[in-house]
Give the backbone structure.
Amino acid sequence: MDSIVFGLCALFGLAGTALSAREAWRRRDQVEYRIARLTRTTAFGVCTVGVILAVPQVEELVESVTGMNNAAKIGAHICAVLWCGSLQLMLVDWSYNQDVLKASLYARIAFAACVLAAMLPLFAYTTEESIEFTTEYASIPGVTVYLLIYLGYVAITCGEIAFLCSGMAIVARRGGHSWSARGLGLSTVSALLGAGYAASKGSYLVANYLGHPWTLETEEAISPVLAGLAVITLITGLTMAMIGRRLAARIV
């Protein structure tokens, strides 16, 4: 199941990264929203690397080549943090005026840096050959704390992404930019799916800590699907918003 879901995500990621990089190159001389174009391409790129690392066969290959247990896991989690952080920076550049833009960007960069600074020592202290950083090993305190920090960041950033995308979708619809509005609306749904993924895994970890978890099979079936749908719909939605005006012009 994970191979199919994350393999499909990788295909969408590659296509989205190529389109975004092409659009950024075409508009390289335009100063307005330059940060947004750069961070969007970065977001798509690191997301693609992250989902490729999450494919079980690739995960085994990475661990075999590096000789490091959980190497692909930490790589995928770092990519997820960078993916969420880059999307925040993109949407902040789209949404905020110049008076508060720089401070808003720095605040989100600092937040992501603090999350990584908390995750990496926990990972180094906890990782062993017999341990994987999944909900299957939720009985190990270091794994639970590490995952809750990671999932908490994903939930918070996805919440802000959903809020910003929904607001911009309303503005785009009022301005008559239907394709952009649809793309941003789809991006809102995808951010909510991302928050749902974080809530699914996080609530299992909390329930396990309290001694009343539901079945691990249920959690392992739901979470990858939510994560996969979030990635696919967000890349699709932001790509629609990116090229929406050109699509509308061609149709007309």
Summary: The chain is about 85% helix and 0% strand. The mean pLDDT is 87.
